[in-house]
């Protein structure tokens, strides 16, 4: 019985991995690595770590300017810098966050995580609260169990 179950599960898992690999948000593995390293720092709530995440995301975006998820996380980091008072020019920081958000939506507006980050940025900076609500709703339609969306 176990062999039969394993014989069904293994090809299914392999097919899912192949689909997941093909759907990677970037083909540049260095950009992807930079994104993952930034992600590890982004939610630390420590100034140096958040600034480090911003710098890593800048490198990822430089390597792949169409990397929607990196753009969206970079936009979100602008909110963190603003909330914590870690920016010298708040209006420039705000504008940068909104610009990154719009770029991310233009590139990867069908990814729940991009939608959630975009909603967070647009709502926080009071750019488009109703649009932010729609983005969250769309993220949850795409992935009803998406914790960040909730």
Characterization of the model:
This protein has 150 residues and is an all-alpha fold. The chain has a single domain (28-142), classed as Alpha Horseshoe (Serine Threonine Protein Phosphatase 5, Tetratricopeptide repeat). It is built from seven helices and no strands. It has helices at residues 2-22, 29-42, 47-63, 68-83, 90-108, 112-124, 129-142. The relative contact order is 0.10.
Summarize the structure.
The protein has a single domain (28-142), classed as Serine Threonine Protein Phosphatase 5, Tetratricopeptide repeat (Alpha Horseshoe), CATH 1.25.40. 76% of the residues lie in helices and 0% in strands.
Topology:
Blueprint: H1 2-22, H2 29-42, H3 47-63, H4 68-83, H5 90-108, H6 112-124, H7 129-142
Helix pairs in contact: 2-3, 3-4, 4-5, 4-6, 5-6, 6-7
Assembly of the depicted chains: single chain
Low-confidence stretches: 16-22
The CATH class name reads Mainly Alpha
Strand residue percentage: under 5%
- Shape descriptor reads globular
Q: How many distinct folded domains?
A: 1
What's the Cα radius of gyration?
Answer: 17 Å
**Count of DSSP E strands?**
0
Distance between the termini: 39 Å
CATH topology: Serine Threonine Protein Phosphatase 5, Tetratricopeptide repeat
Order of helices and strands: HHHHHHH
CATH architecture title = Alpha Horseshoe
Number of separate helices: 7
Q: What structural class should be given to the helix and strand makeup?
A: mainly alpha
Residues in helices, as a percent range:
over 70%
Give the biggest beta sheet: none
**CATH superfamily placement:** Tetratricopeptide repeat domain
Q: Give the averaged pLDDT, no decimals.
A: 88
């Amino acid at each position: 019985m176990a062999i039969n179950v394993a014989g069904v599960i293994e090809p299914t898992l392999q097919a899912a991995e192949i689909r997941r690999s093909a759907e990677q948000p970037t083909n540049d593995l260095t950009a992807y690595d930079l994104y993952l390293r930034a992600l590890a720092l982004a939610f630390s709530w420590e100034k140096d770590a958040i600034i480090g995440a911003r710098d890593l995301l800048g490198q990822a975006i430089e390597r792949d300017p169409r990397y929607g998820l990196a753009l969206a996380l970079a936009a979100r980091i602008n909110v963190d810098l603003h909330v914590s008072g870690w920016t010298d020019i708040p209006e420039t920081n705000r504008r940068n966050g909104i610009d990154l958000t719009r770029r991310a939506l233009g590139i990867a507006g069908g990814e729940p995580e991009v939608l959630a980050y975009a909603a967070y940025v647009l709502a926080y900076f009071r750019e488009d609260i109703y649009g932010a609500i729609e983005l969250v709703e769309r993220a949850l339609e795409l992935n009803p169990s998406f914790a960040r969306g909730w």
